[in-house]
Amino acid sequence: MTSTTQQSNPPIGENPIGEELAADLATAALGLARRFHAGATLWVVSPQWEPHAHHVAVEFVHPVIMGKRALPAVSLVEPDPVAQCRVAVRPGDVILAVASADEPDVLDIVRRAPAWGADTIWIGAGPRPPAGAATHVLWVDSNDPMVSATGRFVLMYHLLWELTHVVFEHPGLLEEDHTDAVCVTCSDEGRLAEVVAPPAAATTAVVRTAAGEEQVDVSILESVAVHDLLVVHGGVALTRLDASADPAER
After folding, report:
1. What is the 3 state secondary structure string of 54-99?
2. Top CATH class, 191-241
3. What is this structure's pTM?
4. What class has domain 19-173?
5. Domain ranges of the chain
6. Chain-centre distance of CA 243, in angstroms?
7. What is the pLDDT of residues 190-199, one digit of tens each?
8. What is the distance in angstroms between the CA of the first residue and the CA of the last residue of the chain?
């Protein structure tokens, strides 16, 4: 019989990470190393647990082991982390959030990140975020409300740091495959875009996408406001995403 109560720390002698989380950590470290190799900055937010944001940033900035490189990482701890990320993040950067699955600012950040051109890593515990909410989800499955204060939780981002440096030791892993599928008709996939300025005319608006700022046709939408999220295809805004929608459905 399986117990319905999960402990924050595994029994003595048991792997504190587990195979599934270990695989997730390896995948996240590979993606993060590739982003750093391409010039990314890591932006760290933790609205609920600010010390974790500082701790993660210090891990990457401070080369505590001889020969390891210092990596650009900044903790964002002002009252409005969404606005901070909007200003700070550039295409190719990575946002790492340490938070529970129901933290509203983090939910808003991960849904907007594709429009900013950023990957996301979400570290947390307890009930999981919806599938696909972030680029990488690193999670401790535990019902203990104090798990975020345990060594098992902190171990996750220590391992992420270490595995990222392991990837750097294998340069052949750092190059990405960019053969993404696109529409054969217009060579433009459906992309997420965030409106950056009020529409200057009824038919066009300036939006921010992973490729930068561009003008798109918004004539089929009833209204468009700054910070709206749009789905753009072939230079046309097809729909506006509901701010209350589940991140997995956006």
Report:
1. HHHHHHHHCCCCCCCCCCCEEEECCCCHHHHHHHHCCCCCEEEEEC
2. mainly beta
3. 0.84
4. alpha beta
5. 19-173, 191-241
6. 18
7. 899 999 987 8
8. 38
